[in-house]
Amino acid sequence: MTNAFEKQHQGEALWSQPVVPAAIESRAILHVVSARDYASTGTVLNELPGVLTGKTNPPIGGLLKRIMDLAIAGAALVLAAPVMIVVGLLIKVTAGGPAVFSHRRVGFGGSSFNCYKFRSMVANSDEVLKAYLQSNAHARKEWEETHKIRNDPRVTLFGRLLRKSSLDELPQLINILRGDMSCVGPRPIVEDELRRYGEHQAEYLAARPGLTGLWQVSGRSSMDYNNRVALDSHYVRNWSIWLDIVILLRTIVAVMRVGRAS
Asked: How far is Cα 96 from Cα 109, in angstroms, rounded to an integer?
């Protein structure tokens, strides 16, 4: 980010929602490049300026952040185990098929990993999405711009409850223990999305993706893709252990509010 962006956030209360000013939105315009230019993730890493992203360099936060990840994820997994067992059984009963699915995401240094989630979609989700986008121009535009759909036809009734309460992401605690992810970090993205980060790819690749992050506690459903990228970049450039703690506390408050509203 530019110095103007950093100055904008100096002295900002940590408990307020981060705001990406218009000046930064213009800096965060994403440039889509061809697959030929980035034939492999290794090519991307070799050409990225700025932040060091080679695997010989540790992710942001280093050992301190990793110790905190192991302590929090380990304790959370023990406490959440009964809930996870119940959720898994309910998915089997209401939708059939496996309760947990994995999806390839881009991790630290460009390595890919299987990101685990409770299944919240129908079994033939790819076919349902393709048919829906072909028949709905508005949804197709929304998908192209944000890689999400507000009223996703693939999500089951129980799946909507899981997503609203964020319970669908509990299996990612295993990803944290494995070292694929961190408790706090940029949101995990698929390979096609990495190209949309443009000049901010280096910041994303310098950190482990997070179970939660600035985007998740900053009105994610109403935020466009440029602002998501700006928040991920700002998090990496301004990381501190205290920022992680504040984001975790805000995540807990947000989940509790959803729970009371459900």
From this structure: 36
**Separation of alpha carbons 51 and 236, rounded Å:** 10
Give Cβ neighbours of residue 244 (< 8 Å, ≥ 6 apart). 61, 65, 68, 183, 184
Q: Which of 171, 217, 225 is nearest to 194 (CA)?
A: 225
pTM recorded for the entire structure: 0.72
- Taking only the tens place, the pLDDT of each residue in 118-145 is 998 877 777 777 787 777 777 777 777 7
Minimal CA–CA distance to 107: which of 153, 176, 161? 176
- 3-state helix, strand and coil shares in percent for the chain, rounded to the nearest 5: 55, 10, 35
Gyration radius (Cα) of the chain, Å = 18
pLDDT at residue number 39: 34
